[in-house]
Amino acid sequence: MAKADAKKHRSWMRKIFTFVLLAVLLLVAAGAVSVTYFLFKYGRDLPTFDEMVSYEPNLSTVIYDRNGREIARLFRENRTWVRLEEISPWMIKATMAAEDSSFYKHHGVDISGIIRALWVNFRRGEAMQGGSTITQQLARNLFLTLDRTLDRKIKETILALRMERIFSKDQILEMYLNTIYFGHGAYGVFAASQQYYGKKPSELSLAESAMLAGLIAAPERFTPLRHPEEAKARQAYVLRRLVELKWISAKEGSEALAQKLTFASKKAPTLSNNKAPYFVSYILFGHLLPRYGGERVYQGGLRVYTTLDLALQEKADKIIQKLPSEGAIVALDPATGEILTMVGGKNFEKSKFNRAIQAYRQPGSAFKPFIYSAALESGIRFVDHLLDAPLIYENGWAPTNYDDEFHGEVTALEALIHSYNVVAIRVAEIVGLDKVKNLARRVGITSPYLPYDLSIALGSGSVTPMEMAIAYACFANGGYRIKPFAIKEIRDREGVVLESNGPVLEPALDPIVSMTMLSALKDVVLYGTGRPARIEGYETFGKTGTTNEWSDAWFVGGVPGLVAVVYAGHDDHKPLGDKATGGRIAAPVWKEFVSTAVKDLNLPKSFMIKPEYDVEEVTVCRYSGFLAAPNCPRGTLILQTGSAPLNTCPYHGGMVFAGIAEDPNAPRLLLAPQDYTYMASGQAAPELSAPSIAAPSAASLPQASKGAAPPSPQEKPYKKDPSPPDEVERRFQELLKEYGLVN
To answer: In the predicted model, is pLDDT for residue 429 greater than 90?
Structure first.
């Protein structure tokens, strides 16, 4: 009986065991089905492993100057990636202490951490700790919304578990520190370090790190810039956690808490708030956005290395404030076309109108070097003579000089040095308007606003400061037209070179013409209207420009290795003031800027004359054009070998008749059409200062242009402004919308 009972008992035990086993198997199967369904339901819309591996966060595009200094950042989220080893160990510890002290122990989800957070928060009556691990927070920040729902929490957990299988702990921590938001537009630890302390992440102290780590939970609530008391309390909590974890000593915690922090309180960089806003806008809308698109430029982490010299740019920004009006400063390297400085106005925030490239303004006498360059190409020399006497045209136009005086027979050099208007008109009439315009186009004047009449000799066309800089560079570099460029190199976020740019030059002037013009423009600065711009110890060349009614003032010129333009004028074209000439308004500003530039750029002091060119440097009398005697008003010209007069000035030491009769290179008197009328009548031209010592000659020169149409005296400059500032402002806003940079 006992055996039967035992057998029966074992039978029941087997049945119970089988039942339990089946039940367990059913539960496991049901659980597996549930988990499978659960994972399918919540995981089907989540990023795959491949998508998580290939994920690229939004990174700021950084623009650098020629020396590697940061100029600006372009971003939707202000973020710059740094490696974990480039972050202060204090910042790493403080972050884990504040957000996830068991980070290196769990596998993405920390159940004990959740329980501990609930208990701490319950005991203190406020949310001091969160239950999400660093991995969960990263998953949420990268791939999910911030909605406080159960579905989001489940998805967050699934993603965290996946991420722990894909990435190492160090990789996850690096991603976390580079993606979290620290408030005030700062995403990631690099931006936060810059924003709050003006330093690199590697330089953060324990106290600074605890303050930043405390921001992570609620950046707007704990910001020290707006809520210092709450920020201090949060910092104290982070330091206390570090002590509890035995990651720092109590003494270290107390000392860090007592440390007084100094905040940089920097504004997040914007298109307006950077160190060269007109330049940045120039490359952004002129190159970066059209070529790479708004998304890549503002989220792709490009590295843009430019030609700008930031130190020089910052000084130019300060110097331009001395103008009595709006204005612009442009500086180029004439040998390469690199844009070294671009200031388009006094305040980009108030006006986006970039006067350096968008303001078409009359250059006045600053245009005359192109008239005389065309004359040089036509065989006229600076030692030749022209008449500075009244001109009256059939339509009543009677141009005059700045001082309303005439100086009789003068050399072309003297006429350029003192900027005699009627002589320039005579030269243009002799040479012909087609040759003048053709030369202007060759050297870089692309403006559509050049008139086809003799007023072009007085600078009545409308050009930009950039065009003038390009054109004057031809005089400094041996006759080459440069293509200005602002970007040397662009790299992507991985450091791969996307583009690389360099000098582009093409012949525009005969080198001898270029060097002769340069030498004459140096005399303008030594003896003429350009004297206020002279840089002591440096060979300086240039020309002033002033327009009718004193509306615009210019100085355009350079030194070895630099060409610069200063333009001054009101946007509404009202006068700058009585006698507000380029020499009085623009030249002093130009001098101050270039005086700084020659030292900062360590420029040479003299222009080099290349030995391969058949030229010689000749000192002439500015009054007669012959070789200078000891008492002559002197000028130094670079001339083609064998073309200079052979005899000494007959007014100041030489023989008059010998000078004319025996010198095959003696200066010639060149006549315009109206001057032939004087000669035919047997009368001297009005108001000549002395008898001519140069024989009238048209041999080997172009025929005087009789078809040129002088402008009507009724026409006023800016009758129709070719570049109104309000139109530029409107177009600027349109471009922002076009590239998705504003809502």
So the answer is: yes
